[in-house]
Amino acid sequence: IDSHYDGSADSLEQLRLNIERSGEIGSIVAGDFKSSMLLVPLLDIDTETGEPLNYGVFGAKLEDIRAKYQNEHIRLHVVGFAKVVGDLIEGLAQVLTFFAVAILIAGLVMFACTRCLRSTLLVLFCSSIAVVWWLGSLPLLGYELAPYTVLVPFLVFAIGMSHGAQTINGYRQDIGRGTHRLIAARYTLRRLFMVGLMALACDAVGFAVL
Fold first, then answer.
1. Sign of torsion, CA 189 138 124 95?
2. pLDDT tens digits, one per residue of 124-133
């Protein structure tokens, strides 16, 4: 678009010629000339504040632009990493709701298996503590919980529930055989410790390969 563009028929015709000569048809301009793309590179740092780019606020501003200019004749589509992250941040409330529902369902299943409220609450508490520790250790190590990794707390909690269920099941089996409760706890730990350690080692090797 040159500096003489004024929206007239001649300017539009000149614009069409410029587009045809640019070689961008099919790339950032549609073949039927009815749509075009604005490609905007983003900086990771807000140059005004020096802080990392807030994708949640940025996504909301993009939606304000869409609401301002989109109508029955003009449609705006926003794509890219920043928009995806902004949408994920906007949906975090729903994710937390799903997390609460998952905790409730896991607790009910655990109670149905153990028929012991204290054991169920203990496993839920320990699994939740693991999630809290994990979330607290991230900033200490210089990392942040990105929207793409928001499902990791679900995995940590699920693994904690799984290991807790295995521990309680092994403990109950030993108690059923007449073993003293302290000895039963030791036996259960010995049986599961090496298996769990090998599983963690395999996970570490797998992630290292990736």
1. negative
2. 999 989 888 9
